[in-house]
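User: Good morning. I'm curious how alpha-D-galactopyranose would be positioned relative to this chain. Could you predict the structure with it bound?
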Amino acid sequence: MQLHIDIKNPKVAEWTKLNVMKYFCFGLFILLFISCDQPSAVAIEEKDPGLKDYYSEYFLVGASVTASSFSGFDSTIIVNEYNSITAENLMKMEPIHPEPDEYHWKDADAMVAFADEHGIKMRGHTLCWHNQAPAWMFEGDEGKTASKEQLLERLKEHITAVAGRYKGKIFAWDVVNEVISDSEDEYMRSSQWYNITGEEYIRTAFKTAHEIDPDAKLFYNDYNATQPAKRDKIIKMIKSLQDDGIPIHGMGLQAHWSIHHPTEDELRAALDAYSALGLDIHITELDVSVYAHEPGGTRNKRDDEADDFTPEMEQAQMDQYEMFFRVFRDYRDDIQSVTFWNISDRYSWLDFFPVRGRKNYPLLFDQEGQRKKAYDKVVNFEASAE
Ligand code: GLA
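Assistant: Good morning! Here's the predicted structure, ligand included:
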């Protein structure tokens, strides 16, 4: 049923994913604009306990960051609230490895230095994905498509360079991202990786990452991971890796959720199923959209369309956040880390996806960086248990 389907409609997911780069560019432009407007280098002060303190007996709590997150109020929120960070984009294949012999380490190095300085752990995201992969990766000789051998060799080189540089700094890597298809009649996503190498790129990626950094936990990461049909395909794929002795240690549920889904039953069923595989579980990209899923791909915001954060949305979001974290606490033996995708409602990728220019309010901090009412729901365990 559509209601049970994640924000990315399976029917249009392929198309929309191909377009997601456009929103990143637009988003990055907005972000640059916003960062000029931020108070610079705010002194970071210790204040009330943060999410990381409330959850110190449960799991790590983190957020995704950009190169501009290390100053201004974003950095204050990070240091006060989180003990884990993930790069939103800057460790992905294209930004970090735009040309065959060119790596852009500067931003990733700055992130590692910030994390080191503040005693924050780092998740790595992501070593292999069909989006944000540079075109040259798939190009062969004389205008042909790369051969299987060429592509696997390039994948190994890439992982060796990136995982090697940050060895010992990254405690968990999203090794491959989103390889399972959303279509009911298809198992694997038909990406360039899959079309050229079959399933071999997945195995090569995990084996290489393990060789290079044997202490890092290696994750498969995907969206719609609570949706039963996709969940079962993910499990089939992970079991086949496990049967062949491929080093995979964890399942990352992206958790791009909304005020409408998933239900508590779906969430519990998914956590049961993944933990039954003996895997660690990370919630890797949590946000709670205040809008209903709508079919039909991406579009611009209509002029007459409201995008205020209404009291009804606020209440529905509080209820969802309360439920999600109550369930996460119940699964504390299985879940080691919960990461929000972006820091505050000041900037979210959901401002551009699936509706360009429609403000969304998916996080626990408002546009001024203040804690929202949903924050209290997440940290007030007793009220939640009643
Ligand atoms: C996927 C990716 C993330 C990010 C989001 C959209 O979930 O894993 O890196 O690109 O899409 O922001």
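Confidence is low (pLDDT under 50) at residues 1-7, 9-44. The longest helix spans residues 10-37.
Let me know if you'd like a different ligand tried.
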